[in-house]
Fold:
Amino acid sequence: MSIIYRLIPLINLDKNIQLKVLRIRNEEYIRKWMFTENEINEEEHFKWIEKLIDDNKQFHLIIIGEKDQAFGAVNLKNIDRKNKIAEIGFYKTQNINEKGLMTKSLSAVINYSFNILCMEKIYSEVIEDNEKSIKIHKKLLFVNEGFLRSHKIINEKRIGVYLFGLLKDEWEKNKKKINIRSDLIVEIENV
Structure:
């Protein structure tokens, strides 16, 4: 039996689920790998969601399981339709141990980005030492395009940032080689 997850825009979810997303964003493990390390309060969270409503350069898809449980997010931002590029980001709560969920969710968004939004390149920035994120990028065929040394200050410490990129033709040519769980179904809704 397949397990179905839905990717639903954050702006389309009710307030209770949006609050669950806030709790995930504030998990210590998640904040550790974000460029904004501060804990986010409700007011900041809902102001951010309000800004998303009219912003056509980004969207945040929340991974929803059965019983409207929020498990994480995949987002596209800095969508540049002229240059056909977008930046991808993601996070998943540590309260679920569903192996392959991020890989499957990211694959769905990558396909959507290339085939529906007509992007030609997706890129990402990853904080050094975030081995899980680096591993997922490599598994999903992203190429390490560089490393920005001592690039950001997080928790009063200078850290480096890896730059990853994925071209549409690389994805189309090689995506069948990726080992993705077939018993997980991830559907994108209402984008």
In short: The two ends are 27 Å apart (CA to CA). The longest strand covers residues 143-154. The beta strands are 3-9, 59-64, 70-80, 85-92, 121-127, 143-154, 157-167, 184-188. The CA atoms of residues 92 and 102 lie 7 Å apart.
